[in-house]
Amino acid sequence: MEKLTSELVKRVAKENGADLIGIAPVSRFKDAPPETNPLNIYPKTKSIVVMANRILEGSYKGIQENTDWSSYWIYGYGTGIYGTLGNAMTMTRQLVESYGYETVSSPGSHTILPHEAPPGRPPVVEGKLPSNVVLHMRISAAAAGLGEFGWSKVFLTPEFGPRQRFEIFLTDAELEPDPLFKGRICTKCMKCVDACPGHALSRTERVSIKIEDREFEWGAIDLGKCKLTHWGMNELASPFIKKDVPGWKMNIDEQTMTWFEAYNFGRAVSVRSKYINTMATGFEEMGQGGRPGPICGAYGCIETCYAVLKKNRKFREMQKETGVYQDADEE
Ligand code: SF4
Ligand code: SF4
Predict the structure, then answer these.
(1) From CA 233, how far away is CA 299, in angstroms rounded?
(2) Same domain, 288 and 236
């Protein structure tokens, strides 16, 4: 039987649908807060395996044409992307477990972490952490060498820029780790800041973390403003809210809601409104239980960023070197 190596793990992941895969040793999480530390989910963790699939460029076209918001929601977030990625995860975990190791899947969090989400759950066992320990997706991707943070806080890879979503599993198999990404993708052009209809991205306030000898940085983001806009409550980005509530006025710059408040507010409004709900579900009379979707279409942090990167010769060369795009010619 072939030896279990990182190379074999990556081959199986890619053969089963993963676009990207990187491996981090657990030592790269030594400074992670306890509530995001993999050892608090699986104490025997030796390696953290991070996979990604690309969000296809065409996913945004319906929003750009103001005609279809469901495509990005389904194919950029839902089964359209996580179906394939889930298959790659399952098959790769089966491979690793067939060698006698354990694998523990963690959904991770893109946006908020337990300490940012009051009220926290109480521990279910005395002396333990609350029961919502979750890895930070993007920091895990950085630790696995897949790329770097953009100023927008969206993760950037040399293959797809800001267009991908991740899955993670932990294992007690000691796999050869990938080196940290040493290149620079983000040009600090601040076009994401200019284009974000939620005015959620700071131009000046910087956040940074260090993993081994590499510093990763991004701009501060107001998650409440982002969520309100993403959920379609911000009339600057939503063609629906004024149709539902003609008298609606929301000055996004004055909003101080937390992510959770914005999340709950957006959901409460959407289940009683025809247009936002229609957009998300595709059924006019869905009624209770509907939910809003990504109405802003990540216009600043993903769409604009990728449009900028596509015009950047250095990025296109980097992209071409990855072999993902055969036609990544200069424009
Ligand atoms: S648009 Fe992209 S490349 Fe430009 S600053 Fe924002 S994240 Fe960086
Ligand atoms: S998801 Fe929308 S509101 Fe949030 S940062 Fe991106 S462009 Fe701005």
Answers:
(1) 15
(2) yes
